Amino acid sequence: MILLAWSFAASSGSSGFLWKSERRAPPQKARRTRTLEKTDLPSRPRLSHNHSVTPRELANSICDTLRGSGYQALLVGGCVRDLLLGLEPADYDVTTDATPEQVVRLFPESVAVGAQFGVILIPRDGCKVEVATFRSDVGYSDGRHPDRVVYSKTPEEDVERRDFTINGLLMRHDTGEVVDFVDGQADLEAKVIRAIGEPDRRFAEDKLRMMRAVRFAARFGFEIEVATFRAIRRHVKEIHQVSPERLREELTKLLTEGAARRAFELLDEAWLLQQVLPEIAAMKGVEQPPQYHPEGDVWIHTRMMLEGLPAGTAPTLAWGVLLHDVGKPPTFQSAAETGDRIRFNNHVEVGVRMAEAICRRLRFSNEDTEQILRLVDNHMKFAAVEEMRTSTLKKFVRLPHFEEHLELHRLDCLTSHGHLDSYEFVKRFLEVTPPEQVRPERLLTGDDLQEMGFRPGPLFAQILRALEDGQLEGQIKTRKEAEEYVLNSFGSKKRGVSSD
């Protein structure tokens, strides 16, 4: 066997697309010249009854069952690509000549998630593998789903309907033999994202493939082949046919796979950014005061912050980073206008409204929307932490997912003036302040206030807030002190007590 040994390390200096790459004629037959060594293969299942299967083992078991029943079965798509890149696949897909009905008969636990398109999901022990029947697709009226599918008996026809050559590779699960009808191995070696067949046709079939081309290029440090890149530019306006939910998921992947800066630069180069997030495209050329932002305009600053997001970043933090300065372009005032320096008066308030509109447009959950808006709304408050009252600071660090606020602030500082004084101050405060002092238990409740003779109403909230501030400041520590404070400060407002 031949060990696949070349390196696929991402190059930070690569350009967005490959002008030197020429279109090749489609290969006439599959090449099987590269085979993974046994040590690199998904392991064969040798399982006891109480063993929980891994995704690899489940995929292998499915292939074994299908082949043992007389059907063809091959690993396909992203899992093959990742194995050849030396990466651990996030999930596995299997392609077969068995029809969905035949797959269901062999796997009673299966779920028909897309049976009309030949796709069956097989779950086991918390893992899942999609099994798709060899097919060709006829028509894509909605720009996503085929109008009709025709099952075929060969994997070649199935591969030709897929998106990019690096995702069109097949592999024998037991021997590691790679079956390549589309020159995908050559494009992996050359670090190229190339549409299978005619790029215009591939993007007409599913408009989201334009975003996926950008994501794969950014994630792997690859370049987009020139014909594929030009086709994206020709079809950019059609991205609006993609549902908001699918756009949101793809944008979130762009932000959280460890190459967010390159991804957004490619979105811009491919003319997609103006279509999907015009509010971010508007950041380009919006200058900032050099004494605070020596790095340059809002677009440069935002890209530098995106570069600091590692793979696996919380989606809400990633979106908070992207949107934290979204209010600056519409609030920009030049030094000539202000008489002293560039200013962005009320950019936080404007940014919160804009971020909310974006979240609603992309149909984020209410929970995620609230967190993203909190990140935008509070990112400037760190400048005042050293002057805050103790109670105010404690309330600030009690914000939900405060670690995201802290990280956004750290990135904001590192990509601008470089001073981390406020960041370090808050970190020290959290280290030396016991959690019970940050979130003390209430000393009195509404029921206690009623027993003390107070009438339920807006006054209750005022009293409880004042009590909490006293606790947070360290001025009220016991129930007795709390009762004395309430009677001294609010006793005249008890029911039946005249204020005259």
Describe this entry's structure for a reader.
The strands form 3 sheets. The chain has a 7-stranded mixed beta sheet. The termini are far apart. The model is unreliable at 1-28, 42-48 and 496-500 (pLDDT under 50). It is α/β, with parallel strands linked by helices. It has helices at 55-68, 78-84, 100-106, 155-159, 184-190, 199-205, 209-220, 226-235, 244-256, 260-269, 273-276, 278-281, 298-307, 315-323, 328-331, 335-338, 347-361, 366-378, 390-397, 402-414, 421-432, 435-438, 446-451, 458-472, 479-490, and strands at residues 17-18, 73-76, 93-96, 111-114, 119-124, 127-133, 135-138, 148-151, 170-171, 178-179, 192-193, 223-225. It is globular. It has 3 domains: 17-242, Beta Polymerase, domain 2 (2-Layer Sandwich), CATH 3.30.460.10; 277-438, Hypothetical protein af1432 (Orthogonal Bundle), CATH 1.10.3210; 446-493, no CATH class.
CATH class of the largest domain: Alpha Beta
Radius of gyration: 29 Å
Our estimate of the beta-strand percent is: 5-15%
**How many strands, which pairing sense, and closed or not: the largest β-sheet?**
7 strands, mixed
Number of helices: 25
Q: What are the low-pLDDT stretches, counting only 5+ consecutive residues below 50?
A: 1-28, 42-48, 496-500
Shape: globular
By CATH, the topology of the largest domain is Beta Polymerase, domain 2
Strand order of the largest sheet: 4-5-6-3-2-9-10
Shape-level CATH architecture of the largest domain:
2-Layer Sandwich
Give helix % range: 40-55%
End-to-end Cα distance: 98 Å
Q: How many beta-strand elements?
A: 12
CATH superfamily of the largest domain: Beta Polymerase, domain 2
Work out the count of structural domains. Answer: 3
Average predicted confidence as pLDDT: 88
Structural class: alpha/beta
